[in-house]
Amino acid sequence: MPLSEAQLGELLSQIRQRLAVLEEEIARKLGQASEEFSAFERIGDSGDLSSILVEGEVEMSEALRDIDEWRGLRGALRRSEEGTYGVCIDCGVEIPFERLRATPMALRCVDCQVRSERREGSHHSTL
Ligand SMILES: [Zn+2]
């Protein structure tokens, strides 16, 4: 059954809220990472460089994960504009509303998601 207008509206507002949160998070994490990297430059070789560097890398990798999610959600918005949102990109089946509510950026139905993760081998997705 295709998504109703109300269901699509709910998902889209969920996506937009999440995007706004992610944008703040990404800006904050990138800001912190760069602050830590500039602290690294200030300290030169007199301080504890390794801990600063590691902290900066943690923020950076978290920011990259957020950016991935942000991209996925932007993609979902784009698909909603194209009218292809909520349709499995592999088999064309309609993705159940409950799945989309749990994972608004889902591209595939559960079956295809499992197949695609098997195909990609060690690459694990939380979708
Ligand atoms: Zn499918």
Structural notes for this entry:
The structure is a single chain. With 127 residues, the protein is mainly alpha-helical. It has one domain (5-119): Four Helix Bundle (Hemerythrin (Met), subunit A) (Up-down Bundle), CATH 1.20.120.910. It is 70% helix and 0% strand. Helix 1 packs antiparallel against helix 2. The two termini are 21 Å apart. The mean pLDDT is 88. Bound molecules: zinc ion (ZN).
Helix content: over 70%
Number of domains: 1
CATH topology: Four Helix Bundle (Hemerythrin (Met), subunit A)
What's the end-to-end separation, in Å?
21 Å
Question: Any idea what the CATH superfamily is called?
Answer: DksA, coiled-coil domain
Strand content bin? under 5%
Bound molecule kinds, no repeats: zinc ion
The low-pLDDT segments are none
The SSE string, one letter per element, is HHHH
Number of alpha- plus pi-helical segments: 4
Output the CATH class name: Mainly Alpha
User: How many beta-strand segments?
Assistant: 0
Q: What gyration radius follows from the Cα positions, in whole Å?
A: 19 Å
Shape: elongated
Main sheet makeup = none
Strand-helix topology:
Elements: H1 5-43, H2 49-82, H3 97-102, H4 110-119
Helix pairs in contact: 1-2
The structure holds zinc ion.
